Every structure is written in C-alpha cells, then in structure tokens.
Amino acid sequence: MMRAMYIVPVIVVILVTALSSVFIVDERKKALVLQFGDVTQVKEDPGLGFKLPFIQDVVYYEDRILGLQTAPIEVTLLSDRRLVVDAFARWRITDVVAFRRAVGSAGEDRAQALLNNILTQAIPEVLGNTTQDRVLSLDRTALMNQILAIAKREGDALGVDVIDVRLTRTDLPEQNLAATFARMRAERQREAADEIARGGEAAQRVRAAADREVVELTSDAKRQADVIHGEADAERNRLLAEAYGRDPEFFAFTRSLRAYETSLKGSNSSIVMRPDSEFFHYLRGDDGAGAVPAAPAPAAPAPTP
C-alpha cells in the first residue's frame, strides 16, 4: 500500500514531464523553441517536436500568406496634384529566426505595423516622381511593381517576403472634390451649350429652307392657277360670243332669266324701279314680242363657271 502511494505521484510526474516535452506543429504554423529567450530549435515541418520540459518554450507563427491594408495617406504628385492613396499587401514569414529578432514577442501585430510604415514611406517615394495620368492609366502596374520592390527589400530585414502590393484607392482629397466636380460640371454645361447652339443653327437653316420652298411652291401654284383661270375666262368669253352670234334674242332672254333669278332670291325680295323699265321687258308680254336684243341694264353678271 505504501509502495502504491509513492508510485502514483511518480507516474504523474513522468506523464507531465513527457507531455511538456512534446509539442505539435500544425501545417499552417511554424514553431521556435526558446530557452531563456534564445532560439534553440526551428520547427517548420508539421508534426511532433520535442523540447526540454519546464526549461524550453515553444512560440508559433503563421506559415500562411497574410494580408495588410494600409491607412489612407495623402501623396503630392510630380504635377503638384494631391491624391489620397491606400494599398493592400500580401506577405509571408520566410525566416522565423530573423522575424523573432525583428518583432520580439509582439509577433504578427508588430510585423503588420512595421510593414505599414514601410509601405507608407514607399508609396510617396514612388508616386511623388510621377503624374496623375500615370497613376490612373495602365502605367499604374509599373508603379505598383516599384513599390513592391522597395517593400521586398525592406521586408527581408524582418524575415518576411512581401508577395504583392496593390493600390486600392487613388482619390482626390475631400477639399478638392467639390472644386473638381464644379469644373467638370462647368465643362459639361459648356459642351451642352455648344451642342444646343449648333442644333439651333441647324434648325434655323432647315426652317429657312422650308420657308423658301413654301414661298416657291405657293408662287408656282398661284401662277398655274392664274394661267388656268385666264384660259377658262377666255374659253367662257369665246363660248359666250359664239352663243350671242348664233341667236342674239335667245342670248338676251337667257341673260334676263339669270338676272331675274339672281335678283328675286328669297321669300321676301323687293325691287323698286319704274314699271316701264327694260328690266321687266320679258315679264310684260305673253310671248316677249318686241323684245330688244340687248341685255337688261340692271341685270347681274352671270356667275363664273
């Protein structure tokens, strides 16, 4: 019984010692074994590792690609234009020993801050020697490659590899946006005014041409109408002269009837004249005997055909 009382604690101590001497490295991690702050072992492959229990410690670091979003910064370009720029970078720990010496026990958070400082210095250095047109054109890729080269060079001292750098924002400062929008609005309004003026000029030319064509067509139609009226009047006069030459008495009689019809229209017509007037010549006799071959003086003219 007394033996069992000593064996159990010994077994527990052995188990605890064995467990504290073993550590596991995940495939997404890298590990450093530290003894009193000094690196004694580097474990980058996944699997089991061994260390001295109670004396050595294990520190894990990410083996995956990490991302970094920089804070927006104002950059003065070569053309004295100012832009608000931020960037996104991807980086990875390549030398955990150098990384440990550079960041100490702060780990990835300290590395993120250091890389952010590197990028905020590299971006003005590169963009300060170029113009806005290059930043906003296809040359932007070349500029990002220059920033990446600087970040890679500075990142080697931290034990990290900066894989890629992308400019995610290149905007004007807030105080310049209103002036820029006002200038753009004024340019568009000027272009619209020019288009309206050109359209009005073209419309005026079309209306003038249409008015001229209307006058020409109206004049030509009036001329043709006058010609037709003249020919009709000539034909009417010819027919009247021919009819008068054939039977003057009948011609005078028909003209008198037409005058009677014109003068006595309506239900309440009145004519005041002398009873022996020539106008009533064909109304006095039964057969119109002794009629004068001339047409009655007050007879109305025959209606135009």
Automatic annotation (TrEMBL):
Under the cellular component aspect of Gene Ontology, which terms does the record hold? membrane
List, for all copies, the residue spans of the domain called Band: 20-184
**Protein localization:** Membrane
Alphabetized CDD domains for the sequence: SPFH_HflC (cd03405)
One annotated GO molecular function is: peptidase activity
Q: What is its main location?
A: membrane
Q: Which residues form a coiled coil?
A: none
Keyword Membrane part of the UniProt annotation = yes
Q: How does it sit in the membrane?
A: Single-pass membrane protein
So what family is this one in? Belongs to the band 7/mec-2 family. HflC subfamily.
Question: Its function?
Answer: HflC and HflK could regulate a protease.
The name under which this protein is listed is Protein HflC
Q: Which species expresses this protein natively?
A: Fuscovulum blasticum DSM 2131
